Amino acid sequence: MATPSSLRNAPTATVTESFSPLELVSIPDATAVGRASRLAWPELASLATDMLFVGVNGVLVFYLRFFHNGHPDRNMPIGHYAGFLVVYGALVGIFSHSRGLYRPIRHLAAPLDESLCVLMAVFWATVFLTVFVYLSGDKWVSRLVIGSSAALNAIILPAWRFWRREIVKHRVASGRDGRSVLIIGAGKVGQALATYLEQNKHLGYVVKGFLDSNGEGNPKIIGAPSELSRLARTHFVDEVFVTTPSERDLVANVVFQARERRFAVNVIPELFDGLGSRAPIGHIGDFPVMELLREPIPAFGLFAKRLIDIFGAAIGLVVLSPLVVVVAAAIKLDSRGPILYRSIRVGKKRRIFTCYKLRTMVANAESLKPQLRHLNERSGPLFKIENDPRMTRVGRWLRKFSLDELPQLWNVLRGEMSLVGPRPPVPEECAEYRLEYLRRLDVKPGITGLWQVTARSHPSFETALGLDLEYIENWNLWLDTKLLLKTIPVALKGSGA
What we know:
The chain has helices at 4-7, 41-66, 78-98, 111-136, 143-173, 188-199, 228-234, 248-261, 299-334, 365-372, 393-400, 408-414, 427-430, 450-454, 461-473, 477-493; strands spanning 67-68, 71-72, 179-184, 205-211, 221-223, 239-242, 264-267, 281-284, 287-293, 340-346, 352-358, 418-420, 446-448. It has 497 residues and is an alpha/beta fold. It has three domains: 4-30 and 178-297, Rossmann fold (3-Layer(aba) Sandwich), CATH 3.40.50; 41-173, no CATH class; 300-493, no CATH class. The strands form four sheets. Strands 5-4-3-6-7-9-8 form a seven-stranded mixed beta sheet, sandwiched between helices. Strands 1-2 form a two-stranded antiparallel ribbon. Helix 3 crosses helix 4.
């Protein structure tokens, strides 16, 4: 079997029915096959970051060269250097793109190889720029400035990419992020792939387990390939890797289930006759993969949603802090107990987090819950009593105007919640979910949402769930905007309970 480090440069395999994945070799890198020539949003973000640093480095060198004791040189050639920066940035972008540096991080080379590609891109961009300046006869642009800019770019551009990898690695290792994957086949190739993904967390993958029909006694095997649909939902799977010499019918079934459950399918080649003939072949780190299906992700929309969450939560915490202080004092004077109520909730992909609220009930409210369960006015796993005897005087007023939820802005800032999303369930509620209900855990829970502004007082659990699923299926930024605007009059009306 070829080792992972040698896979990429191995010769092309002749595909036959007897070809074994234990003799796995790489097909020449054809990542660009079948892809549109335009850059996707994450790639544009990487390009924009490079251009930002090239511009900042150029301005810094220009300042050091032409400003003395804070005063500009009288003969400062601003126009010449502005043109120099534009050309240099374009060249760095072109050479970086030609070396594949703007691909998604999971398709990039190892950190050292990526840094070398960046250095080569900066080197050739500098060479071409120097030749361009020389041939143009421009005597204003200093060769020292060009060299200094190149040196800064050679340090900063690899450094920010290394920082990005470390951020991804930290978020995956801490369980806050990552694409959940299942591996079909627990043989040597599957085990090697799982080990590689676990050891290279900067690729952004979290292995949930193996599917294999012949692996009794292996605790990492969580089921058979025939259970893929159920396990993909219960483990919130984003991608599936097929590492066995599977029959065409099995792979076709995996793709069929992927369309229903909305996850991506990758095959560690061998190639499947017809089924994979048009599939682009790329790499996940050192492993060649054939991408048969990928569910499109609204990257720009999610990025914009996160920006809105950050700015909205930060501004809300600052502006509303005087109100929170007043309310906190009222809670303390009204009843014994802490000001904040910490509730364990279930977030995106079943990640557990602590949800913060202002306390609205007596301190021992949870211990009294079993005694009051017969008064529950909601159906299903929800628990709600309109005139709950555990409620304090201040708490009843806070619930009425939804002010008890203000501390959840901190959860939004931490990335555990969003301003708009499904209601955050408690673990006991999730334990009663049917398989199809788990769809509502595909996204972050929100402070407000479709259910909160349209049917908050409706007793039916199915109604609440249906509205949450409707929000997920029809999500867009405009829908979030409308729900945020509708939340204001609903809160002022005092219809909470």
